[in-house]
Amino acid sequence: MAFRDRIKDIGFLILNEEKMRIANLVENELGDTGCESAHGLSFYIETENHKLLFDTSPSEVLIRNAQKLGVDLTSIDTVILSHGGMWLVSRIKN
Asked: What is the C-alpha to C-alpha distance for residues 26 and 24, in angstroms, rounded to an integer?
C-alpha cells in the first residue's frame, strides 16, 4: 500500500491548535489519488504560518502531482532537504 494511501485521511491535523496540511507529492508506489509515482519521497507541509517542501524529485512528477493535489509550489517559503543528493537540489531554482 502506498504511503499516500495510508495518510490520505490525515489531510488536516491540529497540532498545538494550528491547522496543518500534509500532502505526499512523490513516492515510489502508485496510490489511489491519481498521482504518478517516481523515485524518492516528497511532502508538502502547510501550516498557518509556513508552506514547506520536504525533499524534491528528479523528475517533473512532483510538479504534475502538486497541480493534481492543488498545491501551489510557487508559494513555498522553506525547502527542507533530507540529504545532499545532487538530484534533490537540481530542481530548486530562484
From this structure: 6
Global confidence as pTM: 0.72
The answer to whether the beta carbons of residues 5 and 30 sit under 8 Å apart is no
End-to-end CA gap in the chain:
35
CA distance 73 to 26: 13
Q: For 51-77, what is each residue's pLDDT tens digit? A: 999 988 778 898 999 999 999 999 999
- Other C-beta atoms within 10 Å of 61: how many? 19
CA 40, 47, 49, 76 dihedral sign is: positive
Residue found under cell 504511503? 3
Q: Please state the length of the chain.
A: 94
What tens digit of pLDDT does each residue of 22-31 get?
Answer: 899 998 888 7
d(CA 19, CA 40): 26
Give the β-pairing of 18-26 and 12-15.
antiparallel
